[in-house]
């Protein structure tokens, strides 16, 4: 701050030094003016100027020090009181700008909330004709046509479901309800949802659940498992997907393993990034890069860790590691 203050007052200091050097020069050139008294006056003036500069530094920089140390937010309660007219101009400008930003932020928040509500309403309205469409598909006699239409219907259903949960994700803490639930029931319900897709791709399931009960949120856990299953089904064909659960170090472990195309080692660390699809199959238009990202966000809110092990061309294993029972004190306190 001292260096900044000196730079700010450099023109004054330069003028003061130049003025006194000019006085000394005049005294030196004019023999009628005694040089020694002039030098004494200049010396006293320099001391007084330094004292004045120190005093003004403390007074003038107090406001700016507080301004510099202030946190970058819209709270102006901790801002120092201005002492000079120029400081009052700065304070007035900051207050006006802050009020403008607050009004803009409020309008933007209201617009986002309105768009979110409209989208959620639209998703719920679309589900009605989708349900009717599914009933109409079930009445078809042509097995091949029925299979293809059911697959396309399922894709729409899963995308709408993903969009619905994505919009609810910022407020997931308000929607959590922790309870003991049957893991087997959730898994079988999710498999039943994608059954037609699995039949079309020749995919079966090898299920070995040593642990069938977990403490979590049923709706969001089902969403996480749904994303893991759809990810495995999407990149597998004519193979079995293995689903296993066991206890390891007092934690429940759920593994979903497939023998699909696998993930390149350079992509493994990025598969949970928003919008990331692949570098080895970058032209795959079916991938959205949102499924595992949303699953990871939901899992973090439930204190569930997701790990991935994969080898290109050999398959992928996604592991859910549930928290210990004592860790749920943090979750239920929400």
From TrEMBL:
Keywords: ATP-binding, Cell membrane, Kinase, Membrane, Nucleotide-binding, Transferase, Transmembrane, Transmembrane helix, Two-component regulatory system
Compartments reported by the entry: Cell membrane
Superkingdom to which the source organism belongs: Bacteria
UniProt membrane topology term: Multi-pass membrane protein
GO molecular function, one term: phosphorelay sensor kinase activity
Keyword Kinase: yes
Reaction(s) this enzyme catalyzes, per UniProt: ATP + protein L-histidine = ADP + protein N-phospho-L-histidine
UniProt keyword annotation of Transmembrane present: yes
Coiled coil residues, start to end: none
GO cellular component, one term: plasma membrane
Organism: Peribacillus muralis
Protein name stated in the entry: histidine kinase
Membrane-spanning intervals of the chain: 12-29, 35-55
Enzyme class (EC, first level): transferase
Occurrences of domain Histidine kinase (ranges): 121-326
EC number(s) from the headed UniProt entry: 2.7.13.3
SUPFAM superfamilies membership: ATPase domain of HSP90 chaperone/DNA topoisomerase II/histidine kinase (SSF55874)
Example of a GO biological process term: cellular response to phosphate starvation
């Amino acid at each position: 701050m001292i260096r900044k203050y000196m730079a700010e007052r450099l023109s004054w200091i330069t003028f003061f030094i130049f003025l006194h050097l000019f006085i000394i020069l005049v005294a030196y050139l004019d023999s009628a003016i005694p040089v020694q008294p002039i030098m004494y006056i200049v010396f006293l003036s320099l001391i007084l100027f330094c004292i004045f500069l120190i005093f003004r530094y403390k007074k003038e920089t107090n406001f700016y020090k507080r301004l510099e140390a202030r946190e970058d937010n819209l709270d102006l309660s901790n801002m120092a009181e201005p002492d000079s007219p120029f400081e009052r101009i700065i304070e007035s400008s900051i207050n006006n700008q802050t009020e403008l930003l607050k009004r803009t932020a409020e309008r933007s928040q209201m617009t986002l909330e309105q768009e979110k509500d409209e989208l959620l309403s639209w998703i719920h309205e679309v589900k009605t004709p989708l349900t009717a469409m599914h009933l109409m598909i079930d009445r078809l006699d042509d097995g091949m046509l029925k299979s293809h239409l059911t697959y396309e219907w399922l894709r729409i259903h899963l995308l709408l479901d993903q969009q619905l949960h994505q919009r609810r994700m910022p407020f997931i803490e308000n929607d959590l309800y922790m309870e003991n639930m049957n893991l087997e029931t959730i898994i079988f319900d999710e498999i039943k949802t994608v059954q037609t897709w699995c039949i079309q791709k020749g995919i079966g399931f090898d299920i070995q659940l040593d642990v069938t009960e977990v403490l979590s949120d049923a709706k969001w856990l089902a969403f996480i498992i749904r994303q893991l299953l759809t990810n495995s089904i999407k990149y597998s064909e004519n193979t079995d997907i293995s689903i296993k659960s066991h206890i390891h170090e007092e934690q429940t472990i759920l593994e979903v393993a497939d023998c699909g195309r696998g993930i390149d080692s350079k992509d493994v660390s990025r598969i949970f990034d928003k919008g990331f699809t692949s570098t080895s199959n970058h032209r795959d238009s079916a991938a959205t890069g949102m499924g595992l990202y949303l699953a990871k966000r939901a899992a973090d809110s439930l204190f569930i860790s997701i790990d991935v092990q994969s080898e290109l061309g050999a398959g992928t294993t996604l592991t859910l590691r549930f928290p210990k029972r004592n860790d749920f004190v943090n979750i239920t306190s929400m």
